[in-house]
Amino acid sequence: MGSKRARQWDLKLNDRIFRSGDERFGLNIRRNEIGKIIEYCIGAESLETGGILVGNYNKEHSVAFVSDVSRAPRDSKSGTTWFYRGIEGLQAWLYRLWGEERYYLGEWHFHPGARSVPSSTDLRQIKEISESPKYCCPEPILLIIGGTPSSAWEVGAYVSPLGRALVELIERKDDLVGMGESGSFN
Ligand SMILES: [Zn+2]
User: Fold this and answer.
1) Is 23 part of the annotated catalytic residue set?
2) pTM higher than 0.90, yes or no?
3) Mind listing the pLDDT tens digit for each residue in 41-66?
């Protein structure tokens, strides 16, 4: 999937807001969680890495708010251009967060030295998640970090609605994020 928009390499850890062109889907993620992801990417050096996004939705269920991100589970496997996210420890963690009304929202992963554009494998995997009864997540988010996390990186955000093609979410730079503490969105 290509983007016509030229993205700029970025180093700033800001709160980020993404919306689909039709406003049906959105993602808000704070600098703190972006910072954790960047740290995990730096730690992975030239290998791909990834994890899951956890949080909740607004009342209309159109905007996902990320409250927590995982690092790659220990049973994950990766190369320079591929990543298989493992599952070790995730179920217990999700169960604990579920008690605080924080749920699985989707996946993040890192394309070292490459663009934050999903590969055909990424498209297949996120589609499988949208269809999987195990995840109970018909609109999973895919967040991709590209570039060099210590100096010049970019972030791409996508949603994969069940039965539909992947939708790119466009970053909004001019809005206030307006998010509270973890778990107190809405
Ligand atoms: Zn990928």
Assistant:
1) no
2) no
3) 999 999 999 999 999 999 999 999 99
Name residue, tokens 């490459």: 114
CATH of 16-172, one of 3.30.2320.30, 3.40.140.10, 3.40.50.720, 3.20.20.70: 3.40.140.10
Question: For residue 31, how many other CB atoms are within 10 A of its CB?
Answer: 14
Q: From the CA of 77, how far away is ligand 1's center (Å)?
A: 13
d(CA 83, ligand 1 centre) in Å: 7
> Which residues touch 76 (CB under 8 Å, ≥6 apart)?
49, 50, 83, 84, 85, 86
Report the C-alpha gap between 52 and 105 in whole angstroms: 7
Q: How far is the CA of 85 from the centre of ligand 1 (A)?
A: 11
